[in-house]
Amino acid sequence: MLASLVILPKDAFGNNISSASDQGLNSYNFTFSVSTFNGSVATILDFTNKGWDISGYLVAEFIAATAGTLLLNIQGDNQTLSSSPLIFVVNPGLLVVSKCSLQWEVETKYFQIFSLVEGFIHQHDQYGNLVPGLYEFDVEVIENGTNLIIPVTDIQFRQVGLGIQLFSFSLMEPGDFKLMIHHKELNNSISTMPFHFTVYIGYCDGMNSIVNGSGLNDSVAGEASMFSVLLKDAYLYPSLVEIECLQVQVVNEFDSYQPQASIHPMKMAHGTLCGTNFNCSAHNDVELAFTPLAETNLEPRNMRFSAFDVNYTPERSGIYEIRVFCGNIPLNGGHPFRKAVSAGKVNTSLSGLVKPSPKVPKLTKNEVTVQLMDSYSNPVLLQQSKLELEISSVNSSGSSIWTFSDNKDGTYSGTYLAKDVGTFELCASFDGMRLMPCPFGVNVYTSEYFPRVQNDSVWVWEDDSIAFDALENDYFAGHNITIFEFSKPGCGSILQYDHLFRYTPFKGFYGKDSFSYTICDVNGNIASGGVDISVLSIPPQFVSVPSQLLAIEDVISPRFGGFSGLEIIYSDSTENISITFNAQSGIVFLSPMLMKFWQPAWSISSTFREVGKSTELTLTGCVEEINFAIQSLQYFGNENFYGTDTIHVSTMNTNGNNSLDIPILVEPINDPPLINLPPFVIMDQGSEEVSIFSRDRNKSAVFVGDPDLLHYPGNTSRFLVMFSVEVSSGFLSTKLPANLISTTELKFKTSYQWQPLQTFVTISEHFMVKAKGIRFRGTLEDCNSVLEQLLYHVCSRDPKLLLSFSAGSFPYIFLCYIIDVLFPDNMGDEHRASLIVTVNDMGNYGCYPGCTDLMSMPHFVEVSVSLMREKPLSLLFAHVFGSAIIVEFILVLSFGVILLFFICKCAFVLINEKRRQASQDFELSNVKNSQEGTLTKDLSDKMTRVRGCCSNFFMSNLQLSKFHLRSCLQVGIGGFPKATKTSSSDQLEMTSPSGPSAVASAKDEQLEELPSSLLR
């Protein structure tokens, strides 16, 4: 089939060449060669150059006659075209039966009876290519003479290869036959038909037969070799066959050389075989070992034998394989015999020096090559010890000679050095015999006479071209030097411009390449050198880049997955490369889902690094891994950033980097405005008109702003907000610029609604306003200016009335003061007022609450500032002091509860004691004659218990209850003193021992007075 090829001509820089720009290409001859992958030459037919087509290409046509996957090499002007060789596939044509061929498993025309015949049918098209498929063929066996078709019952076909069929059948009758193979449908025979063959009667067994002799051993080229063949059947009896049935193949493995083998029957002496291994010289009567057929007078070619001698003479050295066949029966189990044939003796007439150089430099080792051959032109090895090199000088100059070394290919290298300039004669000899040419004249010059070439090393980027001067570092005499020849690089094209070479690597190639060149000076001296070229792989390239990315302010974008549309390519799919992402006003990172479900078999790694004020994300891995990872990139901008940002992307490999910038548009989110004002302002008490936010008085920041203004793309004068200030009592006044007249509104004391500005006076493009509330639409700068110039006018009111409880009670008064601090709204207008500042951004600067529908809502911010005449306590101090008072109150209350508990306990004890005392008095009245000492002792014991109880109680609560009890031991019998001063008569009465009744009565009165005194 006719194939067309188009060629796009380009110069060394990659520029296209058209038919109009270079008319010389019309007659430009391209050379084409087609080969298979194993290097064999393929056949092409009718190659034709068609010239230019309408698209600007050079067109060529050819017919490929060889089927398979082929390589098309294209050359022009000794240059290889880029992308050459081209790979293309040629399919075989239709089956042509007359082109089909038959090949036997054993190439013979003699077949042993009852053996299996096997042959291969090769199905070919018109060009001899194998045609795949199982085609139906008929096989007929016809007897010669009678032309009768012999029935073949066990014939079988099966496909054993692409376009090859194996057929087999058994031979059951002896005789001469012919084989016919033809196609059933096409009724046409294959080539080489009919095939004539003979079926002989024989019972040779390939395993039992013997092949032996010295001819199977290693030998020397040119020497005759002989071995014997003894044919035996399966029972080890001699198997007789005609001499034509025995076939011997001796083949050289290297070049398929086959020496001719002669076969003859083995001789017998007195009934004993006399062949290769037998000595027959002692026998006079010698006869052939044969068995005659039915007739006694037969020619030798019709005789049958069982023992044979085989003679052959190999003339080429190498390894040989020897196969022996008896008809179609291979001997030795089908395994070949192997033998080595070495070269013979050296033939000095065929040996000699190989291209000796007539000019050499002095004081330099110069090499001489000698080739040794035998009489059959076989290279002779391992003879370096017999080689000698002789050198003589006409002017008796000195020289040095070194021994020869074997190059393992029949050549030997010798080295000599000439110490002076002059003429020398060389002569090489082998074992004393001189080798031609002898003598050989050599002229010795100084080293400056000869050019010297130094190897060069250059590098070039992949898919790029480089021009360089290879002779720049070379030395040559004079200025006339010629690049004699140069080789072709393996993976690129080379062009020569005088002393310059331009190398262009093939598309997609990277790695090492080289070529050699040879220079020639004016004296005809030549020198060769090489150029090593490193083709560097270019950094990863971007094949797909998004034009612009979209994101939302203060939101990770995209919400799910990552940005798509970014893809890179790289020549080496296994090399680790790096890609770096860096955003000017944000951060780029991988989606967390990707990091969680990452494939563990991959080796990609990601790192973050701070570079200045930005953060870099670096991914490292092969190109496939990186292309998968960058599909999950996400972006998060800096706080409150919106507008246009740039993501800088840089790819790197070991040879360099490549970068680009991807714009990303960040949609704004409407952020609420900011009001940064102090919670209270202390005003001067002696003035009725006070500047509220004076910078001299309040050093804290007074600022009204909006985060959206930071990255506002337009003029800040167009960033407008609705601003208002209003005071709870008094009036406000400020100075406004004239451009706010149309948007200014006021709120007066008598009205609760905003009213537009009615009257004003403009001075220096400003006007003054005074009202309870002021509102306008303006810029943030106007708002800040109004706050800085804002004046407060105090409105006097009656002082507040304070409720008075427990005059002089310090805890209550201080608690009231703390409540006033914590709750300032209870204070009057004269000492305190509230300033309310509001800002409304009107929803014009971004979407809110979401950007899905591109809708927006205004943000409203309000701040209240307390205007005070007195400086209040700090909030921390007020809370701490109030907490201390509350703690003290809790402690006093606790102590009071404890004191009440013990008072009640003592009361219960005294009541019980009085009851027991009454019982004892009743008993004492019945015993009137009791001794006074006994009564006194009993009363003393009871009072001691009472004193002990009261003493313990009062001593434990002495500091808390603030009661001071006098010592209970002042009275001799333990009585308690009264509140009033005691007279002396009373004392005498208490201590008078008038009787037990008086004493008991006095003690009872004291016991009755105890609870009341305790209560006091």
From TrEMBL:
Keywords: Membrane, Repeat, Transmembrane, Transmembrane helix
GO biological process, one term: pollen sperm cell differentiation
Span list, region Disordered: 980-1016
Pfam families documented for this protein: Big_9, Ig_GEX2_N
Ranges of Polar residues composition bias in the record: 980-995
Filamin repeats: from-to residues: 338-444
Domain GEX2 N-terminal Ig-like: 3-90
Keyword Repeat applies: yes
Domain of life of the organism encoding this protein: Eukaryota
PROSITE patterns in the record: FILAMIN_REPEAT (PS50194)
Transmembrane segments: 876-903
Listed GO MF terms: actin filament binding
Protein name (database record): GEX2 N-terminal Ig-like domain-containing protein
